[in-house]
Amino acid sequence: MTLAQLKNRRLLAICSVCLATVVICDRIGFVETKSIPFRFSFDAFGPPAKGDYVRVPVQHPMIEENRKTTLTKHVVCAAGDTLTFDGEAHYCNGIKVDTINVRHTDLGQPLPIFIWNGPIPAGKFYLLGTHPRSFDSRYLGFFDATTAQKVWGIF
Questions:
Q1: Same domain, 36 and 24
Q2: How many domains does the chain have?
Q3: pTM to 2 decimals?
């Protein structure tokens, strides 16, 4: 092998490593809150399902002046499951999945409690954080499954 071929191979290897680094880093996300057990996530492949963690886009007046952001949450109930609410907690197929721990914001504003009794519509997820004060489906309702990006927790 000539010196020129070795240089070309080295350049190709360096370019390949750089490209892989860009692609991998583009799939790493930072979780801003402590509502789930990890702070960094990796965009996984395939459609999300019940039991997965997902990142979803959200815009809500109670989130920093209605700014667009993303939330990373756990899919605890999905389309076809039956979600019920008894005034204190939500149940997925009869199994308690949450408790309404917070009824007002830190500024004293009442939180909108999501009330639903029946099957979850097609293409929707009920999402929860693992922190008891997580701002999630308890207050925001269903999330669109088509906008949910499945993620894996890194650390």
A1: no
A2: 2
A3: 0.86
